[in-house]
Prior knowledge:
mainly alpha
Amino acid sequence: MHQDKREHIITKAIELFAEKGFEGSSIRDLASIADVNIAMVNYYFGSKEKLYEAVIEKRVLYMRDFIDNVLSNTSLSLIDQLDLIIDGFVNRFLSDPLYHRVLQQELLVSKRAQMHQRIIELIIKNAKDVINIIEKGIRNKEFKKADPELIFASILGTISQVMLSKTLCNCLMEKPIEFNPYADKKIQQRLSAHIKQFVHALLTK
């Protein structure tokens, strides 16, 4: 029950922060939309800053666990590991577009230096694993020489561009304005396939 209530507050916090941003949101607002009292929010998180950090941390740590599971599978080739991680990133972001908006807002605005640094630390752990896979493949000559850091940036950048605007995405994909592209499995598969295609082109011999 404790975990369910905490998860419920985090879910509602994502909705609130996505709509109003960190500065425009208050604990009172959150308590209202989550149908809990302010004391309960403070009990679980202590402050708006800690709640915001919990929102970001939960989703980043999900990918941390996912990547760890991929890396622990020694039967996979390096390119297969990259393919699975790309699928994981695409699925994670497209399944939770409100969270993506919250994350992008914080990375772009960066008004809270300590919180911003904490978010970067969480993200960079995932980035380093992807970069290490690429570097390992280059060292053992399984991959062509390439720029591992910019390949990772290109993976996330492509996903972020698709998620920048639902309207823009629909125009690019030639879908009606009311269509929700992020809930469409075919678009998810199309995006994953495209990213994997350019990663393979850059790396595989």
